[in-house]
Each structure stands twice: as structure tokens, then as C-alpha cells.
Design brief:
heterotrimer; A mainly alpha; B mainly alpha; C alpha+beta; B: mainly alpha; C: Cytochrome Bc1 Complex, Chain D, domain 2; 3 domains; 5-stranded mixed beta sheet; 7 helices; 12 strands
């Protein structure tokens, strides 16, 4: 049962001593959750590395179908969005919520650009007959001028679609969360003393970006 | 103490509906209690069916054939395993007793994130409903371990079940996260880490495991879903994938999960033994550190499930060695409990009998665990009834004994009423004896080579199987007595005093049942948890 | 002392474990016996100590004074170090045996064994195929395991060895049988519906018998159809449930003088006992139950386990029973 009370201008749940106590607890909770996210992707990375060492040529062939330029643009977009996210938190801390709103919506826009580029990458692959695993279509690929060298090429794209797909899902969730706090921010629900949700979502967004920083070289460059 | 107003967490908010929206950790604990016990009943009935089927080999048709064919047997087996593991033992102690008593034991008003706590229960129930839902779909027959490539090829509802397990895993992560922050941030003034009761220590170690291990289960299960829906090929040998990688991933979670199941039980037993010996626990720090030690080493022993799967010889040796290291902190705990009894004042309540029963069964489960950790022996015992007997001795003999013991111990605090000691003890006798009759013969069956997950067996295994089945009936009778004790206690138990057992930990310093905010005055702690001087 | 110990081990291990068919199985049993003795002693200390303390320090009055002992470093070191030493000792002992199990002998007789839901196919170098493993005594034998579908596990309890058969790779297991006789082979990795029926025999025979067997098996293909059928009727264990020389029913209906007649089913329908009826009864035993026999039928399905030519041979054999 938690009834709130006002401490130093912040709503504090009854089981916390004061607003600082509550803030520290929330932040620890968010970080712990991020640990689980990183571990989850960690499993995928381990699988990727294992199979990469088993079938290096196949992975090289798979990577050759990816356009590193698009991946690089996406990397820049996400890095920029991390900056705007950080600004969103900063402007709240210094009491400039209208600037924060701009920063947050810019972040959402960056997420959207990322997803649009991903959409074109995906559809292009589908068009060429590149599907994950057993759905990979060598005949269709041959029609588009690519002779498949390694019979198990589908495995690479199994990893590609799983890793980038799960990451994309996180980007979408992140965009939803940022929109939610941007709206809250427009209603002026945050102030320099209370901005935990923005910071929490911000940490989530940075982690999602960080995971991409690892995914990009693994999928596009290595091989 | 403080029941002047007569208000407590049970009667403060009226109406059944208020239970489903309550953010109070005690009420959420009871939500878990009702759901977990319901699942336990279902899983238990499945177990009885399995044992009935194995009462006789199917040499002549229709004799001893309770389940119509191998497919049905395999389904019942899978549901028994999956329900008991994901829906009973893993959430059992942490989500029920941990939720209720961890905040009380450290003098907190609630867990760190009450809203998340309630959400965890809903997430858990969502997963559980999906899991039960597979029963009305094409059912599931993979065994609770979902080994590939069988789980890729079978026609049963693997995706639905795996999604269910994923969702329940999420609930487990959120509960663990909640407890870690609670322990770090919400301890009462003076409650240093090394003044925390050992039950709290155990739940804390468990929470760390839940947070660190479950994500790997999550990604493994997601990949299995991808495998079945999009044929990505990572675990499918036909597409160049490796089915054994699934086992590595799976046990990387599921071995720590074994300790998610047993560590809380050890915590409960520490509380029981010190309380009913009226004596301070022997080697408090050793027990606390050994919990953390077990949690840490448990991440590096998963390969001992795979000595015959085709991993390299050297990997087998390393995993065998590391597994031996887990044995040490476990042995330390056993000896500490034994030493706590020495020169104590031992009261034979039902709870204490469960604690002593735990020691008895865990000793046997422990030594057979060491046997299984020895590579050469495990090659013979792997996937035989010896393993089945071993893990039932530690999981059921260990965890279930601790749940029952802990439940009786804290019953007066949870409900403000006393239970009938006599029927509780009768229940214990049946469960304890029945358990040994059921599972000890299975060690011998395993040594003789009877493989597990067998719908039928060769005639020479018949006699031991018969004994084992009879034992399962004794256990069932024991649980019926237990159910009767609980219902009688709830409906017509005497009013419980605040501290009926003369225990020293904080939860006994508030009223029975506790008030909504746990304590009238914020407690200040000045000494360790077991100062029986 | 050591000898006494060894005897004790043998006695204890012998009473629980299946017959010892190889040298390694004796070594495993020795280690297991040692573990049993040590475990027994540990349990006596732990459980005995617990019972002794529990009775001796039983609560007498509500105000009993108890000793205040928080810890004892010497004792704690002792009960950490002694178990550790024992654990490391058995670990090392286990390692030595495990190493022997995993080190393939040179010049072994190689036999391919392939798992499939739910039977093992054993294939010899000269092309002989069998459902049972036949090996010569006192000779190193290496089984190369593979699987056509899901993971199976090849387990010979009497030899104390086991190895998974994983699709997509080969794995090997070796043994040197020292005893003549028949031994059980189980599948120990859950593989679906008839996992528990994926059982076969390992026959250890003398080198001479083995050579003869190989020759006679390799000649099966050249035998007339009906004689091949007679052979399969034995090796596929049809004979254990069906009589062929008298009209009495065994577990299943007799096949003596049935061919061409009209037979009754349990549901009252009549059916001609011809090629298609026999085929259906073998492949889908549950589809038609003969009158007077229980449903479901205990007969396993041979779908996917008999080739067309084997089936034809068995049918030819049954024809000849008139």
C-alpha cells in the first residue's frame, strides 16, 4: 500500500524517507533492468560469435548483401538521437521544459528515420529473396544476379533478422516511451526536482543505441 | 502491540476486488499463494497420473495402462515438469514468503516498487494462463526442457508454451529486481547487511540469480520461437545450426534456476532451525556468504547437464570440477545447521519437523548430487531415474519441505490465527514417509539403468516402480491432511499472539496479522537477528 | 583396510548395478561403491547427528537456557576443507575413468549406429544392416553414432556407457565386451511418442559366431523372398506375439492358415486377409483390431521401420503359412 505525500515539492511514496531516497531507488531499478536487457542481447552475441567462427566464409557472404552505408547513416542517426535525449534530460534539470520538449520530439524523429531506413533495407532484401533460415530463396536470388555460395546462408540472415529485428522492436518501444514522456513534459509534469521518468527512458534509449553500436560492426562490417 | 484499532492488512480494504488492485506486498503475496497452490494441485495430480501409469509395465494390454498411449504420457509428463518448475517452485518461496516477509524482516513498509510488484503478479498470471491454454490447443510434449530439434519438429503447441515461459520469466526478473532494490535501499535504520535475517539473505541471493540468469532463458526461448515460426536455423541441424547450442543456452539459465529454487528454501530452514532451537544460528556470516558463493559459482556449472551430449572431454572435466566447488558452500550450510542444534532447546513443531526433514532429504539429495557431478558416474546415471530421484530429493524434499515448514511457521503472522499442530504433524509424517517411499526406489531403478521419461519399461523394473507408486499415494494423503490443517486454521483457528514462537526477527515484533504499513513505529535495529541469549 | 574397502565396494555396487560387461564398468562400479560408502558415512554423520541432537536437546521447559555459540573458525575450516578434499579426490578418480571412456582405441571394429524415431539401425562395414547390435567378445568396438531426426542417446547399462546421437554430426562410443550374452540398449534422450520403446539388444558372441553371423546376414539379400520374410519375422520380434504353426492366439492373433480367409474385426466388420490387410495391420496396427483383442492394440507401428522389400518378404512368408 503506498500513499503519497509531498516532500520538498515532490510526490514521495510512503515507504521512502524523502525524494532523494525515492530517486536513488528508482534509478537502481532502471539500471538493473538495463542489465537484463544487455544480458539478453548478450546471448545473441554469443551465438553470433560461435557461428561466425564455425562458418566465416558464409558470414562474409551474408555481410556482402548488407549496405554498410545505410548502416552507417543509421549509426549516425542514433548517436545524434542519444545527444538529443541527453539534452531532453538536461533541459528539464535546468528548468527549460519547452526546449526539452523539442529535444524529446527530435529524438522520436531520429528513431523514426532509423526505422524507415531499416524498412527500406528489409524490403529490399525480401525483394531479392533474402529471408531468414529455411525461407531464403536461392532461385529468387539467382534471378537478381546473386549465386548463393554457401548452402547455409540462411543462417546468417537468421541472425541478421533476429538481431536487428529485436533491436528494431526496442527502438519502437523506445519511441513510444519517449513520446509518452514528451507529452507528460508538455503538460509540465516534470521539474528540476522531479524528472525520474525522463531519465529512466533516457537510460533505456542510450542502451538501445549502445546495442546498435555493437550490432552495426558485427552485421555490416565484420566478414 | 498496536492492534488497538483492530485494523490489519486483511480487513483494512474491504471487498474481494480490492485484493486485485492492492499494492500491499502482503496481499500480493497471498495472491501468489492462492495461484501457486492451485498450480501445485494441478501439477500434483499429473504426478499421480504418471506414477499410476508406471505402476505396471504394459506387457499385457490394458493392465496398468492408465494413460492411453505414449503421446498422452509424454504430455502429462511435460505439463507436470513445466507447471512444477515455472509455476510452482520458482515463484514458490520468493513470491509468496519472500514478498510477505522480506520487507517485514528488514523493517520496511513495502517493497521498493509496489506497483511493479502487482504488475509482476499479473504478468505471471498471463504467462500461466497461456501455459494452461496450450492444454486446449495441440498440447505440448517436449518435456519442460524444450530440447531442439525435437521441439522444432513436434506438432505440439511449443510456441505458445515457450511464450508463456518467457512471460513468466519476465515476472521472475521483475520480482528479483524489486527485491534487490528493496534490500539495498529500504532497510530500517541500524539494519546493516549483516544484521539481515538469513531468509532475507537467501531471497536476496536468489533475486540476483533471477535478474542475471533469466534474460538468457528469455533470449533462448525467443530464438526457439523464431526457429519455429521463421526457421532461422540457429538450433536446426538441417540448416547448419547446432541443437546442442540450445542445451548450452538453456542450462546456462536453468542451472542457476536450480539454485533459484533451492536457495530460498535454505533461507527458510535457517529461520526455522534457529527459532525452534531457541538458539543463535551457528556461523551466520558463513551461511550468508555461502548463499552468495553458490549463486556465483552456479553460473559456471551448466555443462554438467551435458556430459554425454558431445561436448569435448576437457569441457566435461572443467564443468565437473566447478560443480564440485558448489558442493562446498552447500556442505558448509548443512554443518552449520547441525551445529545450531547442538545445545539448543528443540521444540518439535510441524515447522521444525519440516526443517529436520529438509536436512534429512537434502543430505541424501546432496551426496547423490556429488555422485552425478563425477563425470564417469554421470555417464551411467545421466537421464536415468537416478537423476529423477536426485532432483526430486533436492527440489521436492528440499524446496517443498521448506515451503511447507515456512508456511506453518509464518501462518500465525500471515493470518493472525493458529493452526492445529496435531494434524499438521500427521500431514508431515505422511509426506515425509511417502516421499522416501516414492523416490528412494528410483535411485535404485536409475542405478539399474531405467531411463527417465519412459512410458513403459522392461519387466525387471516392475517391483521398484510399484513401491514408488504406492509412495505417491502416501504423499497425496499427506497433502490432504495439510490442506485440512490450513482450512481449519483459517476458519476456526485460535487467535494468534504477536510472537507465538519467541522468535527474534523483526516480522514478529509487529502485530499478527500486521497492519497495512507493517509497523506502528519505524523500527530501529540495534542487534543481529538471532540474539537468543 | 584397502582390501576390505574394495570388497565392500564390490558387494554394494554389485547389488544395485546391472551386470558388469566390460572392464570400464568394473572401474565405474568401484568408484560408485567408494562414493556409496563415503555418502553413507556423511549421511550417518549429518542425519545421525541431527537425530541425536534433536533428541538430546529436546525442549524441556519453556525457559530453557541455550548456549550462545556464534561460530567456531576451526570447525568451519574443517568442514569446508574435508568435503573439498573428498570432492576433488572423486573428481580426479572420475576424470581418469572418463578419459578412458572418451579415448577411442585404435584398430577397433567400427560399426555405424543411426537413431531414428523410434529404432536404431546398425550398419556393418560389409553392408549388413540389423536392428540389433552384434559384436565379438574381447575386441575393441567403436560405434559411430548419428541421428536422422532428433537427438537420441545410446545407452548400454551393463557397460556403463552412454552417448547422445545428435543430428548433423557424428559421435563415437567404444567398449570391449568381456562377457558373452545379451544386454539391453536403451534410448535415453527423450525423442517423442515411442521413446520408451526405442529399445534393442546388444549381443556379445564369440569371434567365430560373429564372423558366421556377418556372412549369413550378408547373404539374406540373395535368399528367396519367403525365407527372407521368415528371417525378418524373427528379428523384428513378430514371433513373440504371433503364432505361425498352430491356430491358438498369443498376445496377438495367430497367422497360421489365415491367408485368403475372411476375418472378423472387433467392430463387427469383416475383412479379407490379403496383402493390403497385412500391410495395414503392420503399418497402422490401431486402424483395425481383430475380434477378441483389446483396443488399443499393444502392437507397435512399423511405419518407417520396414522397407517395402522387407514388408513384401514378410507378406510372402505369411502367405506360405497355409
Amino acid at each position: 500500500m503506498s500513499t503519497n505525500r509531498l516532500v520538498n515539492g515532490v510526490q514521495v511514496a510512503s515507504h521512502y524517507r524523502d525524494e532523494k531516497h525515492q530517486y536513488a531507488s528508482n534509478k537502481e531499478g532502471i539500471w538493473l533492468f538495463m542489465v537484463t536487457e544487455i544480458l539478453m542481447f548478450g546471448g545473441l552475441f554469443v551465438g553470433y560469435i560461435l557461428f561466425h567462427s564455425l562458418y566465416p566464409e558464409m558470414f562474409a557472404e551474408g555481410a556482402s548483401f548488407l549496405d554498410w552505408k545505410l548502416g552507417f547513416v543509421n549509426t549516425l542517426v542514433l548517436i545524434f538521437s542519444s545527444l538529443t535525449m541527453a539534452l531532453g534530460i538536461y533541459f528539464n534539470q535546468v528548468g527549460q521544459p519547452s526546449k526539452a520538449t523539442w529535444a524529446l520530439w527530435t529524438t522520436v524523429a531520429c528513431g523514426a528515420i532509423f526505422m524507415i531506413i531499416k524498412y527500406f533495407e528489409y524490403t529490399h532484401k525480401f525483394h531479392m529473396g533474402i529471408f531468414p533460415g529455411k525461407f531464403l530463396d536461392p532461385v529468387m536470388m539467382a534471378e537478381h544476379g546473386h549465386t548463393v555460395q554457401n548452402a547455409n546462408l540462411g543462417l546468417y540472415f537468421g541472425f541478421y533478422f533476429c538481431m536487428s529485428g529485436l533491436h528494431g522492436l526496442h527502438v519502437l518501444i523506445g519511441m513510444g516511451l519517449i513520446s509518452w514522456i514528451a507529452i507528460k513534459n508538455m503538460k509540465r509534469e516534470f521539474n528540476p526536482k522531479y524528472f525520474t521518468p525522463i531519465e529512466g527512458v533516457g537510460i533505456f534509449w542510450h542502451i538501445v543505441d549502445l546495442i546498435w553500436i555493437f550490432l552495426f560492426p558485427l552485421l555490416y562490417l565484420v566478414g | 502491540m498496536g492492534h488497538s484499532s483492530g485494523k490489519n492488512y486483511i480487513n483494512e480494504e474491504p471487498g474481494l476486488l480490492s485484493w486485485f488492485t492492492s499494492l500491499d506486498h502482503k496481499r500480493i503475496a497471498l495472491l501468489y499463494f492462492v495461484s501457486v497452490m492451485t498450480f501445485f494441485l494441478v501439477g500434483g495430480i499429473m504426478a499421480l497420473l504418471l506414477r499410476l501409469e508406471l505402476f505396471a509395465p504394459n506387457t499385457t494390454a490394458n493392465v496398468g495402462q492408465v494413460l492411453k498411449n505414449g503421446d498422452i504420457y509424454n504430455q502429462v509428463l511435460t505439463y507436470h515438469g513445466a507447471i512444477m518448475v515455472f509455476m510452482v517452485i520458482i515463484p514458490g518461496i520468493p513470491a509468496i514468503l519472500g514478498n510477505f516477509f522480506l520487507p517485514l524482516q528488514i523493517g520496511a513498509k513495502d517493497v521498493a516498487f509496489p506497483r511493479l510488484n502487482l504488475a509482476s503478479w499479473y504478468v505471471f498470471m498471463l504467462g500461466a494462463c497461456l501455459a494452461i491454454g496450450t492444454f486446449f490447443s495441440t498440447k505440448i510434449d517436449t518435456g519442460w526442457t524444450f530440447y531442439t530439434p525435437y521441439s522444432i519438429r513436434t506438432g505440439s503447441a511449443v510456441v505458445m508454451m515457450v511464450v508463456a515461459a518467457f512471460i513468466m520469466g519476465m515476472s521472475s526478473i521483475l520480482t528479483g529486481l524489486n527485491f534487490i532494490v528493496t534490500v539495498h535501499k529500504l532497510r530500517a535504520p541500524g539494519m546493516s547487511m549483516f544484521r539481515m535475517p538469513l531468509f532475507t539473505w537467501a531471497i536476496y541471493s536468489t533475486a540476483i540469480l533471477q535478474v542475471l540468469a533469466t534474460p538468457i532463458l528469455g533470449i533462448t526461448l525467443l530464438l526457439l520461437v523464431m526457429e519455429r515460426t521463421f526457421g532461422v536455423g540457429i538450433f536446426d541441424p538441417k540448416l547448419g545450426g547446432d541443437p546442442v547450442l540450445f542445451q548450452h543456452f538453456f542450462w546456462f539459465y536453468s542451472h542457476p534456476a536450480v539454485y533459484i529454487m533451492i536457495l530460498p528454501a535454505m533461507g527458510v530452514v535457517s529461520e526455522l532451525i534457529t527459532t525452534y532451537s531457541k538458539k543463535t544460528i551457528f556461523g551466520y556470516t558463513a551461511i550468508a556468504y555461502s548463499s552468495i558463493g553458490i549463486a556465483a559459482v552456479s553460473f559456471f556449472v551448466w555443462g554438467h547437464h551435458m556430459f554425454v551430449s558431445g561436448q569435448s572431454e576437457i569441457a566435461g572435466i572443467i564443468f565437473s570440477f566447478l560443480t564440485m566447488l558448489v558442493g562446498v558452500p552447500t556442505a558448509i550450510k548443512m554443518f552449520n545447521w547441525l551445529a545450531t542444534l547442538y545445545k539448543g532447546s528443540i521444540e518439535f513443531t510441524a515447522s521444525m519437523l519440516y526443517a529436520l526433514g529438509f536436512l534429512f532429504l537434502f543430505a541424501i539429495g546432496g551426496v547423490t548430487g556429488i555422485m552425478l557431478a563425477v563425470t564417469a558416474i554421470d555417464v551411467h546415471f545421466h537421464d536415468t531415474y537416478f537423476v529423477v530421484a536426485h532432483f526430486h530429493y533436492v527440489m521436492v524434499g528440499g524446496t517443498l519441505m521448506a515451503i511447507m515448514g515456512g508456511f506453518y511457521h509464518w501462518f500465525p503472522k500471515m493470518f493472525g490465527k493458529m493452526y492445529n499442530e496435531t494434524t499438521a504433524i500427521i500431514s508431515w509424517v505422511f509426506i515425509f514417509v511417502g516421499f522416501n517411499v516414492t523416490f528412494f526406489p528410483q535411485f535404485i531403478l536409475g542405478a539399474k539403468g531405467m531411463p527417465r521419461r519412459y512410458f513403459d519399461y522392461i519387466p525387471e523394473y516392475e517391483q521398484l516402480n510399484k513401491i514408488s507408486t504406492v509412495g505417491s499415494w502416501l504423499i497425496a494423503v499427506g497433502f490432504l491432511f495439510g490442506l485440512y490443517t490450513i482450512i481449519r486454521g483459517l476458519t476456526s483457528g485460535e487467535k494468534a499472539p504477536d510472537n507465538p514462537w519467541g522468535s527474534k526477527t523483526l516480522e514478529w515484533q509487529t502485530s499478527s496479522p500486521p497492519i497495512m504499513h507493517n509497523f506502528d513505529h519505524d523500527p530501529v535495529v540495534t542487534a543481529g537477528p538471532y540474539e537468543y541469549k | 583396510m584397502a582390501i576390505l574397502m574394495l570388497l565392500m565396494n564390490k558387494a554394494m555396487a554389485g547389488s544395485f548395478m546391472p551386470t558388469q560387461g566390460t572392464e570400464i564398468s568394473k572401474q565405474v562400479d568401484n568408484l560408485y561403491g567408494f562414493l556409496l560408502v563415503v555418502s553413507f558415512i556423511s549421511c550417518v554423520i549429518l542425519i545421525g547427528g541431527m537425530i541425536y541432537f534433536a533428541l538430546k536437546y529436546k525442549r524441556k521447559t519453556a525457559n530453557d537456557k541455550t548456549a550462545y555459540i556464534t561460530h567456531d573458525t576451526r570447525l568451519e575450516v574443517l568442514w569446508s576443507v574435508i568435503p573439498l578434499i573428498i570432492f576433488l579426490f572423486v573428481f580426479g578418480w572420475g576424470w581418469v575413468i572418463y578419459h578412458d571412456m572418451r579415448t577411442m582405441p585404435k584398430d577397433a571394429l567400427e560399426i555405424n549406429v543411426s537413431g531414428k524415431q523410434w529404432a536404431w539401425t546398425v550398419e556393418y562395414k560389409n553392408g549388413v544392416k540389423s536392428t540389433e547390435v552384434v559384436v565379438p567378445v574381447n575386441k575393441d568396438v567403436k560405434l559411430v553414432l548419428s541421428s536422422e531426426d532428433v537427438i537420441h542417446s545410446f545407452y548400454i547399462p551393463s557397460f556403463r556407457i552412454k552417448q547422445d546421437a545428435v543430428p548433423g554430426r557424428y559421435q563415437a562410443i567404444w567398449f570391449k565386451a568381456e562377457k558373452l550374452g545379451e544386454f539391453h540398449v536403451f534410448c535415453t534422450e527423450y525423442c517423442g511418442t515411442s521413446h520408451s520403446a526405442m529399445i534393442t539388444k546388444l549381443k556379445v558372441v564369440s569371434q567365430e559366431d560373429f564372423d558366421k553371423w556377418l556372412v549369413s546376414e550378408s547373404e539374406i539379400g540373395t535368399l528367396p523372398l519367403a525365407q527372407r520374410g521368415a528371417k525378418y519375422f524373427q528379428t523384428r520380434a513378430c514371433a513373440s506375439c504371433h503364432n505361425v504353426d498352430n491356430p491358438a492366439a498369443k498376445i496377438g492373433p495367430t497367422l497360421y492358415q489365415r491367408w485368403g480367409k475372411e476375418v472378423a474385426n472387433a467392430d463387427g466388420s469383416k475383412v479379407a486377409f490379403d496383402e493390403n490387410h497385412v500391410r495395414e495391420s503392420i503399418m497402422l496396427p490401431q486402424s483395425q483390431i481383430a475380434a477378441g483383442f483389446p483396443s488399443p492394440s499393444p502392437m507397435p507401428s512399423f511405419q518407417g521401420q520396414l522397407s517395402e522389400s522387407e514388408l513384401a518378404a514378410i507378406i510372402e512368408y505369411i502367405k506360405g503359412l497355409n
